[in-house]
Design brief:
This is Tat pathway signal protein. By secondary structure, this protein is an alpha/beta fold. The chain contains 13 helices and twelve strands. The protein has a single domain (3-216, 261-447), classed as Alkaline Phosphatase, subunit A (3-Layer(aba) Sandwich). It has helices at 3-20, 30-34, 67-76, 114-118, 137-142, 154-163, 173-181, 231-241, 248-272, 286-299, 324-349, 420-431, 438-441, and strands at residues 45-52, 62-64, 104-106, 122-129, 192-194, 210-213, 216-217, 308-315, 355-361, 380-385, 393-395, 418-419. Strands 1, 4, 5, 6, 7, 8, 9, 10, 11 and 12 form a ten-stranded mixed β-sheet that branches. Strand 6 (210-213) and strand 7 form a beta hairpin. Helix 10 packs parallel to helix 11 (324-349). The longest helix has 26 residues, at 324-349. It is globular, with a radius of gyration of 23 Å.
């Protein structure tokens, strides 16, 4: 890239940063200068991370179905195995059959995802997890290679999944992608958006996560209507909290507050312009409600002047140490119906090829039982959905179904065959991140010769 083009891109970057409310000297920092050659976008694309908090049980989500595999699976978890005759409607028939006649079926409650898979718009990722570099079981046992910090810890593995670092990390790979594309958006505020509260996944060097509720923007109390019944009081409060100041921190707070107020106005107007969807979202499903708000923001993308957006939604309750046969099917129903409704909405809007959703979780769980549940694990099975997905296929190698077998480190805790960095790099490449910028987004990807898994067109 020429120095003049880099200079122009940097000026666009600085302008976008000022719109997000990050005032000098914070905006013109080394991180921003390092991103002077930020990516640009003329079309629209969105990525949606669906995080399942607690560590989803992989074996009852994607269930071994061929007779030999099912017998191994049910033998290792006799008290919590899904009945084989309940899986008939959710058996997956990929375009390319797995070796050794291996077959899988989705949990019965994920039946709404089967048509998406059959239509070639959903792929299944086998044995994904946090890694620093490709790791064999021999290397793991010998501790001869670096391993992710604090394995099997909820908070830390949630953070490592989202940011490549343990709890306390301040930057995630979704946010680092936002750093590269914020300058392409008319308002950088709407680059990284969470409908599920705070998430390190969306935080970048300069990208700031914007939080929304399932009803829309979160207005500042006291100025969203009258204050003590008085419009004058509300206006006075507004003037006070957005007033200029010579104190650096007061000035920064005022700038951020004004950004929030302006974003609230713009988002309300954008959402008001969106027609009601014909797709019906399930009630009593918090994940579905979050995804519906994401869908509305995507539908209002032109009013928000957005070209690239990274979204985060979540569902909790996956720490199934007990009652797995009662609790996990309820969770699977919420996931299946929510993802189906969201995908149907993207089809309805005619932009399913512009929006990709993927699941993530702290870790998988043990294949062996923990009473009537399972314990903390490592690798897991995940899904990626969208019109740009090379679907109706598996990606990765089916792990051996065993306790302390060749693909697990004990109790059926899978040693990941696919790293989060490879998953992220494949999505980032589709999103428009250049090969030279991949290590900026995913710092461990340089340790892998295979950076693109091929599940995106």
């Amino acid at each position: 890239m020429s120095s003049e083009l880099s200079r122009r891109e940097f000026l666009k970057r600085a302008s976008a940063l000022s719109m997000t409310g990050i005032a000098a000297p914070f905006a013109l920092n080394l991180a921003a200068i390092g991103e002077a050659a930020a990516a640009t976008a003329t079309d629209y694309k969105a990525m949606v991370c669906v995080f399942l908090y607690g560590g989803n049980d992989y074996a009852n989500t994607l269930v071994p179905y061929d007779t030999a595999s099912y017998n191994l699976y049910s033998g290792l978890r006799p008290a919590i195995a899904t009945a084989r005759d309940s899986l008939t409607a959710t058996v997956l028939n990929p375009a390319l059959s797995l070796a050794n006649s291996r077959q899988y079926a989705l949990a019965p409650e994920l039946k709404d995802l089967v048509p998406i898979f059959n239509a070639g718009q959903m792929g299944v990722l086998l044995n994904v997890g946090t890694l620093i570099q490709p790791t064999t079981k021999t290397e793991y046992n010998a501790k001869s290679v670096p391993l992710p910090p604090k394995l099997f810890s909820h908070n830390d593995q949630q953070s490592v999944w989202q940011s490549s670092s343990p709890e306390g990390s301040t930057k995630g790979w979704g946010g680092r992608m936002g750093d590269l594309f914020a300058a392409s958006n008319g308002n950088a505020t709407f680059t990284c958006v969470s409908a599920a509260g705070n998430a390190v996944y969306l935080a970048g060097n300069t990208a700031i996560p914007y939080q929304v509720s399932t009803s829309g923007s979160i207005a500042i109390n006291g100025i969203k209507s009258t204050l003590f019944g008085s419009t004058a009081c509300a206006n006075a409060l507004r003037a006070s909290i957005t007033a200029n100041s010579n104190h650096i921190y007061e000035a920064e707070l005022a700038t951020i507050t004004k950004r929030s107020i302006d974003a609230d106005v713009q988002l309300k107007a954008a959402l008001a312009s969106v027609s009601e969807f014909t797709t019906v979202y399930p009630s009593g499903n918090s994940l579905a409600s979050q995804l519906k708000m994401v869908a509305k923001m995507i539908a209002g993308r032109n009013a928000l002047s957005a070209k690239r957006q990274v979204f985060f939604v979540s569902l909790g309750g996956f720490d199934t140490h007990d009652n797995i046969l009662t609790d996990h099917p309820v969770l699977m129903t919420k996931v299946g119906t929510a993802l189906n409704a969201f995908h149907s909405t993207m089809v309805e809007l005619g932009i399913s090829d512009k929006v990709t959703a993927f699941t993530a979780s702290d870790f998988g769980r043990t294949l062996t039982t923990d009473g009537d549940g399972s314990d903390h694990g490592w690798g897991s099975m995940h899904f990626v959905l969208g019109g740009a997905v090379n679907g109706k296929n598996y990606y990765g190698t089916p792990p051996a179904i065993a306790n302390n077998g060749p693909d697990d480190v004990g109790q059926g805790r899978l040693l990941p065959g696919i790293s989060v960095d490879q998953l992220g790099a494949t999505l980032a490449t589709w999103f428009g991140v250049s090969n030279s910028e991949l290590t900026t987004v995913l710092p461990n990807i340089s340790n892998y010769s295979l950076k693109n898994l091929g599940f995106m067109m």
